[in-house]
Amino acid sequence: AVLGDIQRRFSTTQIRSEFIIGVEKIGFIITLIFTAYYGRNLHKPLSIFWGCVLCSLGAVVCCLPHFVCDEVKPGDVHNATSSMMRYLDAGLCQSGRNLSYTFSHNQCDQILLVTDESKAFSLLCAGKFLIGVGTAAYVTLGVVYISESASDDVMPLLLG
């Protein structure tokens, strides 16, 4: 349901929306390498805390495209944000002119879509990467911290 909403709202392809999901796993794997190597020497509760903070920050960044980027449909210029309107203000998107730097109406719609899609894509990728980095910190070190701190009788109950 989330992938379909991202594809519909930001006019993105299925490959790009699946890549957004994969970025979280990339962040997890990169952080897992460092966590596995340095995890023994780290202050575990503090590392778990910063992992949770990074996950929270990633969740906020993932929500930003829904507030910052407008839903742009081809041919609908009034939904364009002010940053995308600079193409129209510069005179580049006027189909009646015969200058070499002007674009047709369809090309202007594609420029508006690509600009908004790129902004949403970058914010979603950044948020998912932060979530992956934070998840690796608290998932791996959390289990180790519980096993080191709890007694053998209570540990199976705490790990679930």
Q: How would you describe the overall organization of this protein?
A:
The structure is a single chain. The chain has one domain (2-159). 25% of the residues are buried. It is 71% helix and 0% strand. The protein has helices spanning 2-10, 14-38, 44-68, 86-89, 105-149, 155-159. It has six helices and no strands. Keywords: Disulfide bond, Membrane, Transmembrane, Transmembrane helix. The chain crosses the membrane at residues 19-39, 46-68, 120-146.
What is shown here, in short?
The chain is mostly helical and 160 residues long. Helix content is 71%, strand content 0%.
Descriptive labels:
71% helix, 6 helices, 160 residues, elongated, OATP, mainly alpha, transmembrane helix
Could you give a short account of the major beta sheet? none
Distance between the termini: 29 Å
The number of distinct structural domains comes to: 1
Structural class: mainly alpha
> How many helices in DSSP terms?
6
**Unreliably modeled segments:** 75-91, 94-104
Order of helices and strands: HHHHHH
DSSP strand tally: 0
C-alpha-based Rg, rounded: 22 Å
Q: What is the residue-mean pLDDT, rounded to a whole number? A: 76
- Name the shape in a single word: elongated
Question: What is the percent of helical residues?
Answer: over 70%
Taken as a percent bin, the fraction of beta residues is under 5%
